[in-house]
């Protein structure tokens, strides 16, 4: 397979039509659902697409962004002033194959009146599933148990009544930093496990969430926490489900973790830098908390097997696979392609830019 592919506009009536085509830069192979959407408007687009299953080199992005009306990128692609300058005044829209957009310089988009499309809704269920899995793995010593088998130590490990015993969710108080779609979907999945209470905080501390998306209040005691200290002190399992910004970066630090119970678990499926890696590793080493389940970590993906959290027996660390089921990734591809077309005014009657961060330029 060639490194990249340039698909010229198809079905043009005259050479003049070619001059009216819109160049779009696509930084990765897309699942078929997204590719189909892009090619549906091949009559209006010149598609320049990286075709290897690895990140497009920065130099390639800068070279081929020139004159692009739209950019379709992934989390690993940094969209900053340099890239937008390379695209120039032609650029109208950036569409990211992700729910998060901290890899994108919003100020630069705003100054250039470039719209931003993202995929926040379709991955809720997939991420909530992984979040529950990590909570159970952290509580029930999943990492230690797997390691015992993988190291061929099971035959020589004498059984005793409390061997590899862990915590459980029955009658637990469950806390959430952030209480949007993913947090509430996670709580809905935990109700059959017998949780007793949900406490949470939004960006407005002490204020109730504006929406009860899954009818949680009718099924389990649900209330806003007074502050982060209450979340730390009272949660048997604490879920990090908020966005990354200046107020949440390193929110879960040594002081926060020191307030948690020795039988409590921390689960982060949001953004790595919200939790201090060193503080969490220290807390696990000292037995300040029971365990941790992470799908994200500060510094990813540059995490070696020797990293303190990667090798800690009480930490289950996944390589950011929260949205990684086939249906979800195909839906993300479709939406990101539709967002790209919508931002260029090429969406069909059924396609609207409803998943744009802002209906107008930022």
UniProtKB/TrEMBL annotation:
Domain of life: Eukaryota
Keywords: Oxidoreductase
Residue ranges of domain D-isomer specific 2-hydroxyacid dehydrogenase catalytic in the record: 24-344
GO cellular component terms given for this protein: cytosol
Pfam families listed in its UniProt record: 2-Hacid_dh, 2-Hacid_dh_C
Entry-linked InterPro entries: D-isomer_2-hydroxyacid_DH, D-isomer_2_OHA_DH_cat_dom, D-isomer_DH_NAD-bd, NAD(P)-bd_dom_sf
Molecular function, one GO term: hydroxypyruvate reductase [NAD(P)H] activity
D-isomer specific 2-hydroxyacid dehydrogenase NAD-binding domain boundaries: 133-322
Stated family: Belongs to the D-isomer specific 2-hydroxyacid dehydrogenase family.
Entry protein name: Glyoxylate reductase
Organism: Mixia osmundae (strain CBS 9802 / IAM 14324 / JCM 22182 / KY 12970)
Lineage: Eukaryota, Fungi, Dikarya, Basidiomycota, Pucciniomycotina
């Amino acid at each position: 397979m060639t490194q990249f592919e340039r698909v010229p506009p198809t079905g043009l009536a005259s050479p003049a039509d070619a001059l009216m085509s819109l160049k779009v830069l696509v930084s990765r192979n897309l699942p078929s659902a997204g590719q189909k959407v892009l090619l549906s408007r091949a009559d209006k687009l010149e598609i320049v697409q990286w075709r290897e299953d690895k990140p497009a080199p920065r130099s390639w992005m800068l070279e081929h962004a020139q004159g692009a009306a739209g950019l379709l990128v992934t989390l690993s692609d940094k969209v900053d002033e340099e890239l937008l300058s390379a695209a120039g005044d032609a650029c109208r829209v950036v569409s990211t194959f992700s729910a998060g957009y901290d890899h994108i310089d919003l100020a630069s988009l705003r100054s250039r009146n470039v719209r931003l499309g993202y995929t926040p809704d379709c991955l809720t269920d997939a991420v909530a599933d992984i979040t529950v899995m990590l909570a159970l793995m952290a509580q029930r010593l999943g990492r230690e148990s797997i390691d015992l088998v993988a190291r061929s130590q099971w035959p020589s490990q004498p059984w005793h009544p409390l061997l590899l015993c862990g915590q459980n969710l029955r009658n637990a108080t469950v806390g959430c930093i952030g209480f949007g779609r993913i947090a509430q979907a996670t709580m809905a999945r935990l109700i059959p496990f017998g949780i007793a209470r949900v406490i949470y905080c939004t960006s407005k501390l002490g204020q109730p969430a504006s929406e009860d998306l899954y009818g949680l209040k009718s099924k389990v005691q649900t209330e806003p926490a007074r502050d982060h200290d209450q979340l730390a002190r009272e949660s048997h399992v604490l879920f990090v489900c908020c966005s990354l910004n200046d107020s949440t970066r390193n929110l879960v630090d040594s002081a926060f973790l020191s307030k948690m119970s020795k039988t409590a678990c921390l689960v982060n499926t949001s953004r790595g830098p919200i939790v201090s890696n060193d503080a969490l590793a220290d807390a696990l080493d000292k037995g300040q908390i029971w365990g941790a389940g992470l799908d994200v970590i500060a510094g990813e993906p540059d995490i070696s097997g020797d990293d303190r959290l990667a090798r800690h027996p009480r930490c289950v660390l996944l390589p950011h696979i929260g949205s990684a089921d086939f249906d979800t990734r195909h839906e993300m591809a479709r939406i990101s392609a539709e967002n790209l077309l919508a931002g260029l005014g090429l969406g069909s009657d059924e396609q609207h830019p409803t998943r744009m961060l802002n209906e107008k330029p930022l």
